[in-house]
Task: structure prediction
Amino acid sequence: MLARLGTLALVLAAVGGGAFWVLTRPARLSADTLAALQAHSADPQNGEQVFWTAGCASCHTAPSVDATASTEERMVLAGGRAFATPFGTFRAPNISSDAEAGIGGWTLEQFATAVMLGVSPEGAHYYPAFPYTTYTHATPGDIADLWAYWQMLPADPTPSEAHEVGFPFSMRRGLGLWKLLNFDPAFATPVPEDPEAARGHYLVEALGHCAECHTPRDGLGGLDRSQWLAGAPNPVGEGRIPSLPPQGWTAFDIAAYLETGFTPEFDTAGGEMADVVANISRIAAPDRAAIAAYLVALRASPNP
Amino acid sequence: MPRLLTALATAAALALPTLATAQDMNPNVAARHAVMDVLAYNLGQIGGMAQGRMPYDAAVASAAANNIYHLSMLDIAPMFAEGTDNASAQGSRALPAIWTDMDGFNARWAALQTAAEAMKDAAGTDLASLQGAMGGLGGACGACHQTYRQPQ
Result:
């Protein structure tokens, strides 16, 4: 009897382990995405716009680079910033074009797999502090353009630092389960009919990753999409991140804020948002207006 | 029942900051908020012109830029007295980083003085000059709030 129970336990463990192994397997790009990436004729100028919209510099520049830094300084993706979260402290890696310390040796496919699926060239899951759950909505064309722009970014030899994450979060394979719960290839909100708002919808949901701070998270750190952009506790510090759009703001107010950092009352963006403005002030004015058009249209939908 | 009491106590604690009036606010916090309010008022004049919210008026722009310059010359150190960070003083969003990095904080205020001086010279010239100086001024505000002020 005991032996039988033991065998059963072993079988269950094997089945469970096997299921875990299958369920947590890092994903690969679909054949369609791969084909679209490779067929795309890359445009580094658009890649630069994608770079500033996606805000890569906010997390991946050295800690000494602040919102007032020059464009050249913001292009050095040396890494080293620490992000203290309830799950541990994440350290943004060097993603400069340095072949040793950075990602200069990567292929377009490896880059797209990292950005759109959160999977490293070695086949390991990245922690979702890297907002690939946003970037997975980007078009393959934008990702290929971004990679073309990447080739023009400087190399930096600063070695990446390890994350400080305790058990069980230190087991990256387990992130596969997190992805099962939170990796949603569908957009959070419907595409607006108005073309300008539709462009803004794409910029916010696929690149700008506004929701990473402006949408509340559940106990496992997944976004609560039922409260999309409704405001949330600050994920990396004290205080609260406001709901969008801010009450009483017009589309003009939002676009002006994203360009200059000034609220309609002429207070200024602070915290992480100061750096967001540093990025978004560098994109084309019609794209800022598009983001504003999308956010203003959100007000019509349930938004506590 | 204890749960209800806890909920009530939490609700009361959360409501407190909004109930705080100028009278029971720490005088240092009230004073620095007043400085920021007058800064914002004057920034609204030149910023409004820079953004096209109101027509350019050299005299109004000059007056506002002069005010900002003189405000930036205030010695704000006494208003940032020890024990008046966001954890200690009601209604404050001043982060403890100010006191652990006072040199960095002072450098930010000095950067505002430099930007304000440039604006003082530019605001009355013409709209293009005013707009040109606006980025530096906004950057000075933002850089300090990036590091030393808690979000809402």
Q: What stands out?
A: The longest helix of chain B spans residues 27-50. Chain B touches chain A through 28 residues (CB under 8 Å).
